Amino acid sequence: MPMIEFNHVDKYYGEYHALKDINLSFEKGEVAVIIGPSGSGKSTLIRTINGLENITSGQLTVNGYDLADNKTDINKIRKNVGMVFQHFNLYNNKTVLENIMLAPRIVLKRDEQENKDFAMHLLELVGLANKADAYPRQLSGGQKQRIAIARSLAMKPQVLLFDEPTSALDPEMIDDVLAVMKNIAQTTDMTMLVVTHEMGFAREVADRVIFFDQGQVVEDDPTEEFFKQPKEERARQFLSKIIVHK
């Protein structure tokens, strides 16, 4: 059974049709990059996976839970689905270490020493163990995003979602964040869905690339195949512009 499965999923905002008949599945450990122009529905798609957006029709299952079923406890899903946003969302009044320890303490009731030890391990993983006692205001944007990734990993999720994690960063900070993401992809069996314009990351790390336009899946190919020769003209146009721009 796939870790995540969309069956004929539609999403409307009033009259606006944001997701159109989405049929996708993602296996355990798979790394998928979702690309496409702004406003094409990419972020909406991944936000449905942890219930930040409700689907209008169809079926969406995550780790065996049906998100369209009113009886499904969304908090059980969120325990296993981490998300890294464009704008960090750290608690400014808490230290870096406290930011990472907070959710496992409240949600999982993790032993305090175990929680601290694991948080420090994650800080080492993202290269920021020396910032444990710092506050978010003392960090650069790239450092904040690496802390946000560590915080998502603190719950030991089975699925990790990234919503344009580098788009708010200065160019020189992007590589450090991408390096952390690559390490996670290459050393864990987490399912990762990444909305991004970072084509180098997609080429190097993704198992597949999904191209979105106007709320629809236009192309869904293995990574090498997609970059060598997209099947659809719309995908070819997008790829030529974004790669030339970079």
Automatic annotation (TrEMBL):
UniProt entry keywords in alphabetical sequence: ATP-binding, Nucleotide-binding, Transport
GO MF term set: ABC-type amino acid transporter activity; ATP binding; ATP hydrolysis activity
Keyword Transport: yes
All copies of domain ABC transporter, residue ranges: 4-239
SUPFAM superfamilies found in the cross-reference section: P-loop containing nucleoside triphosphate hydrolases
SMART domains reported in the protein's UniProt record: AAA (SM00382)
Family to which this protein belongs: Belongs to the ABC transporter superfamily.
Protein's UniProt name: Phosphate ABC transporter ATP-binding protein
Organism annotation: Ligilactobacillus equi DPC 6820
